[in-house]
Amino acid sequence: MLSFDRTHSEYVDELTRYVAIPSVSRDASSQTMHSAARWLAGQLAFADGRVESTAGHPVVRADWLKSPGAPTVLVYGHYDVQPTGDLDEWKTPPFELTVDGDVMRGRGSSDDKGPVYVVLKVAQAFMEQEGQLPLNVKFLFEGEEEIGSPHLPAYLREHADELAADLVISADGAMWRPSEPSLSIASKGLVTLDIEVSGADDDLHSGRFGGTVANPLHALVEILGRLHTPDGRVAAAGYYDGIPELSDARRAEIAAVDFDEERYREGLGVPEVFGEAGYTTLERLWERPTLELNGITAGGKYTVIPHLATGHISCRLVPGQRPERVLQAITEHVLAQRIPGVRVAVRPDEGGVPAYTIPGNHPAIRAAIAALQQVYPGQDVLLAVIAGTLPATALFEEVLGAKTLFFSFSTADEKLHAPNEFMRIARLREGMRRGNSSGGCWPRASTGFSP
């Protein structure tokens, strides 16, 4: 049995150095991103950890292939993080990992530096105490997950033979909630786009020109208001194409999940829940697609008529939807709106991602359940759905022919992507814990996993 003799404070101190690297993939310098990659590679020295170039930010690779006859797993995660958002909303500096009671707060602590750190510590402990890993393990950590993994497809295809594996285990993909262990059997797809409305050549004085020209911001708000019907459905014809009807059996499974809607509402601080009519809150969260306005860029708190207004849109997709068809449906719907005095354009972002699923009876799921039952004795393991998106999952299935098992010890309530992101300190040790027959960060072959 593996033992972990270090104290929580020692783990936190080491993780602090990793979180201190502001590896924001959207705008960090190449030097900063390479610094984070080198930190990871150093932790993987036992498996020839190395930094390799891509057309964008580098990846970190490592390989330990000394277990003949055992399955081979590819452990995936990412070292990049989201921007901080409004610094005034942070209780403490975002890149200074801060212990606050039973949590540690800092950008990347939960997504995905903390969960990746758990993987590193388990692997190191196996090597120190047993001299080997329980499986053949390849490691791939990227630096562009938070911007849609734009350069991962080319890298993966170029190195497909080297990265071939029976299963991918993702350190990304948080458990659903802290009250019980869970595994995710699906994640939603994603497409993002901008709706751009333009008017005059430049911003105009709202007094000198007001009332004589159309205001692009007014027009954008009108277009955005037409994206949904009053009952919460997306109004674009064809948006729901390909989605199968939610079966009575699946609805019964979801209804059986212990879910307190009132507590959910109170925890979010909203006066009431809202969404597509005809579905429960949990059905909407797990089984239905969404279209959300994430922000508007235009003008400001000064007296102008902005010449340009842009709405930033994201759509989370479910099985059956095709990203390209969703974009087509939205584009046709938006351009059909007739608003005088402005020009309207729809600008899709690259890298649409389809939804991902893994069967609930897949051998990897069974092995992971056995592992979690060792860590959380007496607790049932919930099979949940990630309402967010992990772009690499569909790619791994397409290029490597391998399913991805989400196996992370962060939880979805830890303010991922928001100010004051945190991770529960206890989750470090829980993720590193190992029973006699199952590994903490990956299922052992003895739990029943086979390729």
Number of strands: 18
Average pLDDT metric: 93
- Cα-atom radius of gyration: 23 Å
Low-confidence stretches: 435-451
| CATH homologous superfamily descriptor of the largest domain | Zn peptidases
Number of domains: 2
Q: How much helix is in the residues?
A: 25-40%
CATH fold-level name of the largest domain = Aminopeptidase
Largest sheet: 6 strands, mixed
CATH class of the largest domain: Alpha Beta
Coarse morphology: globular
What structural class do the secondary elements suggest? alpha+beta
Strand order of the largest sheet: 1-2-6-3-7-17
Beta content: 15-25%
Question: How does this structure look, described?
Answer:
The chain has 451 residues and is an alpha+beta fold. The chain folds into two domains: 8-187 and 356-447, 3-Layer(aba) Sandwich (Aminopeptidase), CATH 3.40.630; 189-243 and 289-348, Alpha-Beta Plaits (2-Layer Sandwich), CATH 3.30.70.360. The protein is 29% helix and 20% strand. It contains 13 helices and 18 strands. Strands 1-2-6-3-7-17 form a six-stranded mixed beta sheet. A four-stranded antiparallel beta sheet has the order 11-13-9-14. Strands 4-5-18 form a three-stranded antiparallel beta sheet. A hairpin with a 6-residue loop joins strand 1 (50-52) and strand 2 (59-64). The two termini are 25 Å apart. Keywords: Hydrolase, Metal-binding, Protease.
